[in-house]
Amino acid sequence: MGEGGQCCSMGGAKSCGCPHHKMMPLFIVLFGLVFLLKTLNVITPEVLDVAWPVIVILAGLFKMTKGMCKCC
């Protein structure tokens, strides 16, 4: 268990309850979802032209500003 008591070992793999560990996978899912919605004609190409750079910028900003938790 980590110093903060949030990390645990389950089946040999460590898992953590810190919310910042879930943000990058969330950005990847959002990125894929935007392209899927465009392919299904749910959103227009103009929305796609704005949405994917915004998601990439947000992911980059998050990566630059995230704080490290005690388990990292």
Key features of this structure:
mainly alpha; 53% helix; two-stranded antiparallel ribbon; 2 helices; 72 residues
Tell me about this structure.
This protein has 72 residues and is mainly alpha-helical. Helices cover 53% and strands 11% of the residues. It has a domain of 48 residues. A two-stranded antiparallel sheet has the order 1-2. β1 and β2 form a beta hairpin. 0% of the residues are buried. The mean pLDDT is 77.
Order of helices and strands: EEHH
Q: Helicity range of the residues?
A: 40-55%
Instruction: Give the strand content.
Output: 5-15%
- Give the low-confidence spans: none
Sheet with the most strands? 2 strands, antiparallel
End-to-end Cα distance: 12 Å
Total number of beta strands: 2
Query: Which strand order does the major sheet show?
Result: 1-2
CA radius of gyration:
16 Å
Mean pLDDT, all residues: 77
Please tally the helical runs, counting DSSP H or I stretches of 4 or more residues: 2
Oligomer: single chain
Structural class: mainly alpha
- Shape descriptor reads elongated
Chart the SSEs and their pairings:
Blueprint: E1 7-10, E2 13-16, H1 23-39, H2 45-65
Helix pairs in contact: 1-2
Quick structural summary:
The chain is mainly α. It has helices spanning 23-39, 45-65; strands at 7-10, 13-16. The mean pLDDT is 77.
